[in-house]
Design brief:
It is built from 4 helices and 7 strands; from the N terminus they run αβαββββββαα. The protein is α+β, with helices and mostly antiparallel strands and about 150 residues long. It has 2 domains: about 35 residues; about 80 residues, Beta Barrel (OB fold (Dihydrolipoamide Acetyltransferase, E2P)). The termini are far apart.
């Protein structure tokens, strides 16, 4: 085998190996991708059937029904609503009228079965200590501000 042919064989081998590794990485990445959809998008059949995805919105007031560890609730994006079935403990922040993201699959019957429920915290959250300091500053007419600047 000539040196030129050897180099060509090595280059082709490297290209095949890199191509195979790239294909494996892309396949693994595609398998683990989980997209987010709103109830309106699910109603418009934009969400994949039989494949995991996330649905998010607000938990409709009065929609939470519990039966032991089984929970059924409705998620809305204020345009469309969707019922979610979940089995397991809910996060502490899960409440009616609050934001929620559920990850699971949409079955052929149109029922969303969640494997994971994530409660969204209020964007206006403030630690209790900071809220108390602001309240105290408001009561003292700003004298707290000068104390904090010292």
């Amino acid at each position: 085998m000539t040196p030129r042919r050897k180099r060509l064989t090595i280059i082709v081998g490297i290209l095949v190996a890199v191509g195979g590794a790239t294909a494996l990485v892309l396949n693994a990445f595609n398998s683990n991708l989980v997209f987010f959809y709103s109830p309106s998008q699910v109603a418009a059949h934009e969400a994949p059937e039989g494949r995991p995805f996330r649905i998010g919105g607000m938990v409709t007031n009065g929609s939470v029904r519990r039966d032991g560890v089984d929970v059924v609730f409705t998620v809305t994006d204020l345009a469309k609503s969707m019922q979610v079935h979940y089995r397991g403990p809910l996060p502490d922040l899960f409440k009616e009228g609050k934001g929620v993201v559920a990850q699971g699959k949409l079955g052929p019957d149109g029922v969303f079965t969640a494997q994971e429920v994530l409660a969204k915290h209020d964007e206006n959250y403030m630690p209790p200590e900071a809220a108390a300091a602001l309240k105290k500053a408001a009561e003292h007419g700003g004298s707290m501000k000068t104390e904090m600047n010292r």
